[in-house]
Design goal:
2 copies of one chain form a homodimer. In chain A, β12 and β13 form a beta hairpin. Chain A is globular, with a radius of gyration of 31 Å. By secondary structure, the first copy, chain A, is an alpha+beta fold. In chain A, the strands form 3 sheets. Chain A has an 8-stranded mixed beta sheet with strand order 7-6-5-8-3-2-9-10. In chain A, strands 11, 12, 13, 14, 15 and 18 form a 6-stranded mixed beta sheet that branches. Chain A has 15 helices and 18 strands. The N terminus of chain A is likely disordered. Chain A folds into 4 domains: 197 residues, 2-Layer Sandwich (Heat Shock Protein 90); 69 residues, Helicase, Ruva Protein, domain 3, CATH 1.10.8; 134 residues, Ribosomal Protein S5, domain 2, CATH 3.30.230.10; 59 residues, no CATH class. Chains A and B meet through α1, α2, β1, α3 and β4 of A and α1, α2, β1, α3 and β4 of B. β4 of chain A pairs antiparallel with β1 of chain B, so a sheet runs across the interface.
Amino acid sequence: MGSEQIQTNTDRAKIRATAESMASRQREISISEFFSKNRHLLGFDNPQKALLTAIKEAVDNSLDACEEAGILPTLKVEIRQLAEDRFRIAVEDNGPGIVKAQIPKIFGKLLYGSKFHTLKQARGQQGIGISAAGMYGLLTTGKSIAITSRIGREKPAHYYEIQIDTRKNTPQIITDKVVEWEVPHGTRVEIELIGTYKKGRHSVDDYIRQTAIANPHCEIFYTPPDSNEPQHLQRGSDSLPPEPVEIKPHPYGVELGVLIRMMKETPARQLSAALKRDFSRVSGRVAAEICKAADLKPNANPHTIVVHEAERLYKAINSVKIMSPATSCLSPIREEQILLGLQKEIQADFFTAITRSPTVYRGNPFQVEVGLAYGGKLPGEELIDLLRFANRVPLQYQQSGCAITKAALGIDWRSYGISQSKGALPTGPMVLFVHIASAWVPFTSESKEAVAPYPEIMRELRLALQECGRKLAMHIRAHRRAVDEEKKKSYIEKYIPHIGIALREILGLSARAEKDVVSTLKVVLERSRSKDTIDD
Amino acid sequence: MGSEQIQTNTDRAKIRATAESMASRQREISISEFFSKNRHLLGFDNPQKALLTAIKEAVDNSLDACEEAGILPTLKVEIRQLAEDRFRIAVEDNGPGIVKAQIPKIFGKLLYGSKFHTLKQARGQQGIGISAAGMYGLLTTGKSIAITSRIGREKPAHYYEIQIDTRKNTPQIITDKVVEWEVPHGTRVEIELIGTYKKGRHSVDDYIRQTAIANPHCEIFYTPPDSNEPQHLQRGSDSLPPEPVEIKPHPYGVELGVLIRMMKETPARQLSAALKRDFSRVSGRVAAEICKAADLKPNANPHTIVVHEAERLYKAINSVKIMSPATSCLSPIREEQILLGLQKEIQADFFTAITRSPTVYRGNPFQVEVGLAYGGKLPGEELIDLLRFANRVPLQYQQSGCAITKAALGIDWRSYGISQSKGALPTGPMVLFVHIASAWVPFTSESKEAVAPYPEIMRELRLALQECGRKLAMHIRAHRRAVDEEKKKSYIEKYIPHIGIALREILGLSARAEKDVVSTLKVVLERSRSKDTIDD
C-alpha cells in the first residue's frame, strides 16, 4: 500500500544525533511562529473564545485611543455571520485615528506598540492583541485584516488590507488605498475568522454589557449576528475619567539587573543626577542619602559603576525611606461610578462599593476596587456572580486561576452572614464586582484573562473584600432585626385583643373601655419595643 | 520640599495625545524585554519557584541532549547557598556537548533552539527556558550565566560567561576561553540567582524525586544546599527509552492559513507531489483523492493557488479518509516502567497502570498514561496525591489550571469506592500518576506548568482515569470481600464452640465427641462459606 511505503520512509530509524548535527538544526524562532503554534496563550484556543478575544482586543485599542486623545468614546461593534462557523467582525471608533505609516506595524507585527515602555494605566500593554487577532483570522480563513483610518476631516481616509508574515513577524501589505469615508476621525478594524457565537456565560453579549458597566463614559452600538438593528448602550456619564499620567519607575521596585542597565544607559553624568532623573520620588536629598548609604560619591560617573558597587547602590535604595509612587498613573472607576453601574444593571436591595488607596507591587502602582450588590431579585440558591475587571476590561475566562477569585475564596463569608461551602465561592443573592487598576497588570498569560496572585495584590483584594463584607454584614443584621421587629409587632397585634377580651371578662369592662385598654396597651408595648431595640 | 517639586514636574498635566504624538511613541518591543517584565509567565514570579524553574530548565535540556545522542544520562545537580536569598545552581550532564559557535545563542537569546520546528516528543520545545533562567539570574544578581561544554575527548572544553542584552534579545559574551575539564563530553551550566530553598510541596527535592520516577534510565547526583555529600539517585533501568522520530504534520491538523503558506513555500512543482512531500500519511492515492475532492488538477502549480482554491483543498483534506498520524514521534514511559517507578517510591497495597493508544489534537500526536497506587501506608484521610507529568517532566505548579487536574476532578470516584466531595479531588490512600506525551504539549503558559484542556486531551485523560478507576474498584471490592470473609470466619470461630456446648448438653455428648462435632462443623461451614464466595 502506498501509505505504508510513505510511513516507512518517514519513520525510518534515525542516526543518533551529535553536537554537530544538533547545531545544524538550531535556529531562531519568530515570535509570530511561536504564538501561532501556541495560540491558546493569546486566547484563541477554541472558536467561541476566539470570537470574543478578537472583539475584545479591538475594543481595548479603541477605548485606549479615544481616552488618550480626550474623546468621549462612541463604538460600533458588529458581528456578521457568513457561514455556520465563519464570522466577520468589525469594531469602529471615533478616536484620533492612526498615522498611515504606523498602520501596517500596529496590525501586522506582534510586540509593537506605544504602551509597553510607559508606566501608566491602559487596557493594552503588550503590543500583541490586535495583530494576534488578525493572525488568527488569517490562519483560519486566509483573509487579511482590514483597517480604515482617518486622523482628521481635512485628511484622507486610508484603507489597508494586511497579512502578518509569521516567519518574520512583519506585515505584508495586500491593499493600500485612499477611500471615501463619512467618519471625520477614527479607526475601523475588520477581521474574518472561524468562531462560534453563543449567548450566556463567556458570551460577547455579556462582555459588552460588562464593558458598559465599567466604562460608563462609553457609548456602544452593538449588532450581534442574530440582529439587524444595533443595540444602543447609552453613555451613563458625559465626563471622561481623569487621564492617567505617565510616571517614572519607583526605586523600590527596580531589580539589580535593571538598575545596572539604567546606570549604564542614563544620559546623566553624575550618579545623584541619574537617580533624580530616572526615578520617580527621588529628590536631591533622597539621592544624597542613597549615595551615602551605598558609600558611593554623588558625583561618580554612573556609566562606570561595576557590579559590586551596583549591589551596594541597590541595597542602599531599599534601606532609604522614599515616598510612595505617584498614583496619577492610575485611573480607578471610583465608588460612585461603580454604584451607578451596578444599580443600572442589577436589581438588588443593597449596594456598596469601596476604592482602596493605591499601593505598589514590584514598583508598579496598583489599586483595588470592590462593589457588591445583594438581595432583591438576585437568585438566592446559587453561587454568587463574580465580575472581574482589570484596567476597566471585563475578564471572562480562567476564573479559577485568577488572583481575584483566589482572594474571594479566601474570605470567610459566613462571618458576614452568607453561606459558603469549603473551598467554594459563597452561595446567595449577591454580585461581586472587583476591579484592579494598575500601571502594569501582571496577567497570568498573554490572553489577559486572569491576574497573577502577587502577594501585595492578594492583600489589597482581601482588605477590600473584607471591608465590603463588613458593610454587607451590617445590612444583613439590620435586615434581620427588621424582620424580628416585624415578628414582635405581629405577636402584639395577635395577642392584645385576646388580652382585651380576658380583661373585659375579668373586670366586667364595657366594649368601649375594652377598646381603649387594647389601644393603650398597643401604644405602651410598641413604645417599650422600640426602646428595647434602641438599647439592643 | 525637594521631592514635592519632582512630583509636580513628573505629574504635570499632559497635553492630550493626537494620532501624530501617539505615532512618535510606537515602537518594537523585544521578546526579552517582554518576558523580563512578565517574568511570572516563565515561572519566575517568586524566589522559591524561580530556584525550581531554573534547575528544571537546565535538567530538561540535559536529558533531551543525552537521549537525542543515545547516551544514558548521568546528571549532577548542585545548589550552593551564598546568602540568605542568594544561590548558585549548577547542572552538569554527560551529553554530547554543544558546538562552540552555538553556545552564546542557546544561552543568551530567547526563542532560539532546534525543537520548535520539529514534530517529536521532547522536554524542551520553545527555545526559551534556559536563556530565561540566565536572564532571571542577571536581573536579580547582575551575574552572568556560565557554561562549560566539550563535544569530545579530543576537543578542548570551552568556558563562556554570557549576559542577554534584553533590549535587542542578543547574547553579550563576557568571557570566552578554553579551560581544563576532566569531563570527556558534556555541558555544565551555572546560574547565580535570588531564590528560596524549601522542603516539601513544590520543592526542588520533590521535583528531583519525581524526575527519577518518570525517567528510570536517568542517574542523578543531587546536592541540596544543606548537604555536602550528593544524594545518589540510581538508574532503575539501563536501556534508553525508544528514541522518538521526527514526523511531518498530519493533514487533518493543518489550518487553512498554514496550508496556504505551505503550498506557497513547497519546493514541489505539482500539487499532488506537494501534498505527498509535505504531509505525513499522504500516499499518491490519497493525494489524488484530495485533488479530486477539491476539484483541482493534481499537476496544478501549488505556488499559484489562490485563497478560494485553498479553501476547497482544505475542505477536501478533511473529507478524505487518511491514516492516523505515525506515533513513532512519541516515547511514552510504558505501563511496566510506571509500575516500577511507583513501587520503588510508594508503599501501597495495590498498583495499576495504563498506557492509552496515541491519538491527535490539532494534528499533534499525543498519548496519555495513568498509574495508580492505593492502600498500604498511604494516608487515608487526606486528598489524594496527584503527580502530573508532561513529556516525562514533573509539573509542580498551577495544579488547578491543568487539564490533568480538571480531568481527575471530573471523574465520579465514589463509583469506584473512593470518597469524594463535590468539586474536589477524592479523599483516600491513593497516589495518581498522570503522564501526557506529545509532539507538542499545549502548555497554558511559557512556564510549562499546566496543560491546556483541549477537548481531545480531556477525553483521553478521562478514559485512562476511568480504566484505572475500574481496576481499583475491583481491588477495593475484592478487598472488602476478604474483610467480609474474615468477619464470617470469626463468627464461625466464635459461635461453633457454643453450639458444641449446647449439643453436648442436649445430646449428652462426651468431651471427645463434642470436640469432634465442633471440628466437623467448622470444616463444613468453612467449605460452604468458600462455595458461597465462589458463587457470588
